[in-house]
Write a structure and sequence with these properties.
two-stranded parallel ribbon; Farnesyl Diphosphate Synthase; globular; mainly alpha; 17 helices; about 350 residues; 2 domains; about 75% helix
Length: about 350
């Protein structure tokens, strides 16, 4: 019980930060399995992103972790590699998470079979996205940049690292609060996937400058070629400004997914405000980020990071409360944010 409280309480709050706000308002039955899935995925992401060990060793450890989650591993996780990764973490909570992995894996078995299957499924898909990164992109210190080939690759990637979360979230909602949802589960899953993709597209565009400098270009090669650019040229300030047409094409693509996300939130009953808020908050935060991206001339410059202010986040939380029980007010608020992004694109 102490491990459970430590993992799903103190540690989860430490590593999830803003996402903990969303987790904390979920219905009780969803909160713990979703929280544990987050912890396992966060540990996997820390392993995949560390530059302390070579990409090949990271991949081996990532695959070993996936096998442990799925109960198919023939050997335990290699303690020496985990210790290497943990020892180099600047964040003490991230270090604690890695050193608590075995306890987290044991905790999976304390849930019922349906929740175990859901946790294993989402962690497997998310680690496939991390595996995709490690196999697709070069070592961070190589000086090379590799771009995704086409829009279809970007769409597949956004599913593996976020769209699948929308699917998992929806399945968990039906499993734990079925009486509050309608019968059309398939449509809700599709909308949930698209909401996840919208949020990941926001991350991709917001973090593009940082990703380029570790050799990762999620902007498709075909779109860059249309703008007369190569991935390497995106590091040159003057040439990087010529990539704005790529941004102007990808933002509307993300906005279409956000609209599906709004439909998802509105389909949740007004008597389930916690579920609604858990969807509406990331939508509003994502659209506020899109507003900044839409007017940025230097979105590929690390000197001008795209980030909404903390007080804006607090305003979103406060503004959502009187709107959440009204379809009319909620739709009006989010559609106004969508319109503001589109107006900035046209400016």
């Amino acid at each position: 019980m102490n491990d459970r409280k430590q993992l799903l309480g103190t540690l989860l709050r430490g590593v999830s930060r803003s996402f903990y706000l969303t987790l904390n308002i979920l219905p009780a039955g969803m909160r713990e399995p979703v929280g544990l899935a987050y912890l396992l995925a966060r540990a996997a992401d820390t392993i995949a992103d560390t530059s302390l060990i070579a990409p090949g060793r990271r991949l081996d450890l990532l695959l070993a972790l996936r096998a442990q989650v799925n109960g198919t591993a023939s050997v335990p996780l290699p303690d020496e590699i985990l210790s290497d990764v943990a020892s180099g973490q600047q964040d003490s909570d991230e270090k604690t998470l890695l050193l608590s992995l075995k306890a987290a894996l044991e905790l999976v078995l304390e849930f019922d079979q349906e929740d175990q299957a859901a946790i294993r499924g989402i962690v497997s898909t998310l680690t496939e996205g991390m595996e995709f990164d490690l196999r697709t992109f070069p070592d961070e210190h190589s000086g090379r940049i590799v771009a995704l080939d086409a829009r279809s690759d970007l769409d597949r990637y956004t599913y593996m690292v976020a769209g699948c979360v929308g699917e998992f979230w929806t399945r968990m909602t039906y499993a734990h609060v079925t009486s509050r949802l309608g019968a059309d589960e398939a449509r809700m899953i599709e909308r949930g996937i698209r909401l996840g993709k919208a949020l990941q597209m926001t991350n991709v565009l917001r973090d593009c400058a940082k990703d380029l400098r570790i050799g990762r270009c999620y902007l498709p090669q075909t779109m860059l070629a249309e703008a007369g650019l190569t991935p390497k040229e995106l590091l040159e300030p003057e040439k990087a400004r010529r990539a704005r047409p790529v941004l102007l094409k990808l933002i509307p693509y993300a906005l279409d997914h956000f609209r599906a996300g709004l439909d998802y939130a509105l389909a949740l009953p007004r008597t389930a405000p916690r579920l609604r808020l858990a969807c509406v908050w990331p939508i509003a935060i994502g659209l506020e980020t899109m507003k900044l991206l839409a007017v940025s001339e230097d979105w590929l410059s690390p000197a001008h990071p795209i980030k909404i202010q903390r007080n804006k986040v607090y305003n979103i939380l406060a503004q959502s409360l009187p709107y959440v029980a009204s379809n009319r007010l909620l739709r009006g608020w989010i559609e106004n944010l969508l319109a503001e992004v589109e107006a900035r694109l046209r400016a």
